[in-house]
Amino acid sequence: MGSAVIAILFGPWAAMIAVSVALIIQALIFGDGGITAIxxxxxxxxxxxxxxxxxxxxxxxxxxxxxxxxxxxxxxxGYLSLVITAIxxxxxxxxxxxxxxxxxxxxxxCPYDLSIAIPAMAxxxxxxxxxxxxxxTAVVVNYFLKNDPGMIYAFKRGGVNET
Length: 163
Fold this sequence. Notes:
The protein is mainly α.
């Protein structure tokens, strides 16, 4: 998704705007995600994920900002923020049968409750998509760390030690 990379490099607020714009363009021009899902998609991918990634990255680097630790911190920030986002989305989908159903109890939108939605979303993101997100986040942040560490927003209030 790239939300973690953008949040670490440019800050969570910039990531929120950039990802929201990308999601709106995808929905309006390509029909990806749908217009009616823009609010939920923006909340999950442009609010939850960037803020989770940014603060996880800061948390993992709180003791000391050592260059050797930064790619690992970036990996776990990208990985965990995607998993957190997937679980939040699964929760939103899983409560649909409880809050939107017909008079006879049939779900209007998403027919799967929390017992199905959360494991389905969590497992695939824990085992596959989260790893890919973490690897991409680590590679991109490591590139900027080696070539232009001043570009990393998360380090604006403190430098990176050479050790």
